[in-house]
Fold each of these.
Amino acid sequence: MTLPFVPAPIRARKVVRTIWDRTGKNPEQPKLRHCHRDRRGWVVAFEMPIGADSFKWLDNLNAISEGLDASVRIVYDRGWVWFRLGTRRIPRKVSYQRFYRARRPAGELMIGVGFSQEGRIWTDLSKLPHLLVGGANGTIKSRFLKQAVIYLAETRSATRLRLTLIDLKGRGAPELSTFANLPHVDQPVVSDLESAKQLLLELEGQMNERYEHIARAGCSDLEEFNRKNPEAPLFRRVIVIDEFADLTQGLSGAEQKLLERLVRETRAGGFHFMLATQRGDATVVPGQIRNNVGAVLVGRVGQPTSSEVMLGNRAAASLPQSPGIAIWQHDQGTQIRVRAINIEPDDVRHRVLLQIPVVQSYSLPAAQEPAERRALSLLGATPGDGEHPPLSGLSELGHRVLESVGAGVRPQNGS
């Protein structure tokens, strides 16, 4: 077979054969059988020698990736090992606006992850069905959660999505309290351990009631129910827990088992967890929970054991100290390096403001934050100190913006 002279396949052959020589007992080397290039990088296939152990490729995934300076995915199929090599350059920063200006792929709860060497990485929370986010303070954890929450709110109505927020910071105002006024949030942000324990019991009751409702309709899960009842679909609920370590370490044995049951059994009922923690040891992320999480996003961690618990290897402990850089692991262990999406606090506040339904008037305190002032300016209303501008003060552009986010308000005659 004649192969084109291209750098990536040649480097792939050299690196893979080097690893094979170091780890394999079979003297026969793999043979390069296929390669082609597409918009995401290279696809390369090797024929494995008879009796070869294909698991060695997965064990040496990080070494292959570093040797090629590329993201690597591996699939084994009928004697051939297929490599997907991402060779794009990862941008230094991935803003919310830059990532989401692209068309959203099909999916019920799609959120962006970041840019990898394959391009944009998306995931569907409804399919995972749960997501674990880790990383030391100041890496990716909090801002990733915020961008995911606001994007879900912007792309799903409150009739199809509900948000439950738990933020056990232990000091000051919880960061997730920024989202307290979203129409999707149907209860106060939980910020103390005792309230979190009570909430777990409430979620168990909701889960049991929902399963009974689905079963009475002759369905097995939420997707089937909604497909058969398009006029009265059930909403999905996303439970976001920041500082997950503070929750798990404060639970009794019975409460721990309840949490594990919720993570294990709520998928079919449309309940999805996003769990975030700075630490990832076995006491923080028990095996029953880790085994039921469909994907993990981990920024740099200080201890190799944290990386091993969350990823199964030490890759996150060796990440460079570069803002937003993280390891994305999904699809039964496939992992790639990404630059996670970043959103600025002012942008979060502005986007939350646009999601709040407006009925009679804006209700903003006299001491307004700069981001809120800029949002009102964008809408065409500029309040005076201590005043609450009426809807009649909005420009035509402002009313069109409100309509686009579901407020459905039009100017009155003579306004």
Amino acid sequence: MPLTKIQFRPGVNRETTSYGDENGWFNSDLIRFRKGRPEKMGGWERLSSNTINGTGRSLHVWAALDGSKFMGLGTESKVYIEEGGGYYDITPIRSTATLGANPLKTGTAGTAVVTVTAAAHGAVTGDFVTFSGATTTDGITAAQLNTEHEVTVVDSNSYQITTAGACSSGGTAGGGSAIIANYQINTGLNTVVTGTGFGAGLWSGLSTGYAQTTLNDSGGIDASVTSFTLTSAAAFETAATTTSANLTIISSSVPVADSSGFPAKGTLLIGSEKIRYGTNVSNVFGDLTRADDGTTAATSSSGDAVTFVGLMLIGSELIQYTGKSTHTINAGVVRGVRGTTAAAHADGVDVKEANDFIGWGDSSSTAANTGSNIRLYTQDNWGEDLIFNVYDGTPYYWDKTLGLGSRATDLASQSGASDAPTITRRIMVSGADRHVVCFGCNPLGESAQDLLMVRWSDQEDPADWTPTATNTAGSQRISSGSEIISAQKTRQEMLIWTDTALHAMRFTGPPFTFGFSMLANNVSIIGPNAVTTVGDKVFWMDRENFYVYTGRVQVIPCTLLRYVFDDINLEQSFKCFAASNKMFDEVFWFYPTADSTEIDSYVKFNFTENTWDLGTLSRTAWVDYGIHDNPRASGIASGTNFVYVHETGDDNDGSPMTSFIESADFDIGDGEQFMFVSRLVPDIDITSSDAEASVNYILKTRNYPGDSLTTNSTNAVTATTQQAFLRSRSRQIALRVESSTTDITWTMGDLRLDFRPDGRR
């Protein structure tokens, strides 16, 4: 039988059916197109073994005059500068306070938890505080106290820390009268909260400041599991004590021996009765809801056991528990409580502490609002120094001359500062003209944020923001929309996206300094970081299309448009970000799919060849090569946050990297007849140190478009494979080329098949 060459069109197309895209590619993962041919993407490895606290949402690189290379990195918890694989904490200090006499109180004997009395501390759970001046207390040494601690808030005047030591006697006050507490800026959210109050979110949702981790249970859990493992269970409370008085069925408070290990509100288990409490003050639980969760009010005696009942949220399921072992929740687990339904959950999904969960019939602990976004950053360098801000937060300045051990400080507190913005949405340095620009900031002389206000400093002076006749500082309010969403620097101008339009900001010189013009109406952007610049091109996505700006705004024709926008979690759209890979003329857009709250997928555009492909990859921020030899990206591996170096090697950080390309269906003529395939002649370039390394050629078949594809044959193809013999009979055939071993890369050419018509039935 004669050989027939099958030539596939470059790029992946999901805008039609598999059968409708004959001779096209229909699915892919971790591949790219180069010169029209599909090939495996380059691998990645960790920048170093050092981890970061929180999820990286912003990366920025620059070089100092002495040749030092720096990378700024912002998470919901910390701000770091990386040099040489080490991460240096530059998180700004929010406030400094001297605590009262002996403000530390240890918990029960042998425990590491210490309760700190600190009036009006202003912290939220997950914040960090650093102590100095503390003295050894109840066996916990001064060195174990005078360091950085993560905060668990008890109330507005107290919080708890977990030390590296253990107390001797328990219940002991101490620490001395000279403890200085340095509070870092409040931590932000890692998942968008869509709203609080009646009718918003799940029932009424979670209060602010809840702990969060991910499920890490070797494959996930089903709906019946009563023991499961988290990535970190450190912040998920367990506590036990005893009653210190008799209780009747109508008692309105629960006095106990020691309530210091219990959170500010939650649920107690006494005998078989669950009691919800709203206050925890001086070893007395108050604001009670007796006989909670369908239990029955009962009497108890002084000295009876009191156990804290924790509550966590996974997806839309609430789960109760009473105990844990390290990171495994394994005691008193009750699935699907408070009207929710027990369900299966995959590894990697978010797990949230829900002790302050507000449900039907509960009074809200906070005023209703429209929700809160995740913590994002904008970064830029002023010479050798770093300027950055938290989205809708304070602008900060890090001075390189002070060293990597120094922290960033408010821009408004810099030497010679005059009228610097104190709150802004984004910040950047304008370019060759050297102005610092704030977008969506407070106007001159006002403290309230104006989400359409643009202000800029004097030229060559990041501290001077007071306009005068002799400087170039100034401001301009954008004329369209209700808020600035994003801004991006290009070679010639800065682009500004509002919720309704795209504007350009160009340096014109005195007297106005900058000119503003609208470039396009009815155009926006899906998230602040969903834009990237490559040379003289700016690429971004909104909620309906992908765009490029090259002097004019153009929609990019996309063969994966509906595939992406039909399967994107729009509630978490602020996490979407664009990333360039100039090595291969590519732009990625990373996004969370509909059933995920974190980024798990990407779509990629080769702007030279106009091809698209898709795949799965958990990355949360990216910076292209330039200062460094390879792109870098922050990502999550088994619940731990790392920075990865991309386009190095062929593997997934030393593990196999599964990469594939799969074709749409093809047939003979109009598909009226079956085809009989007897031989496959591959054309593929394989590179590996192992001469026997192979790529699988998988033939899938079906007889009608509505049938499911069935794997008919799998043929391991090496660099020297000439042909593969097989027997396959069907109307439609699809080809999948796949590798899933280490130390291999490949580029596919054409396919030749030996097939003939084989009747109509």
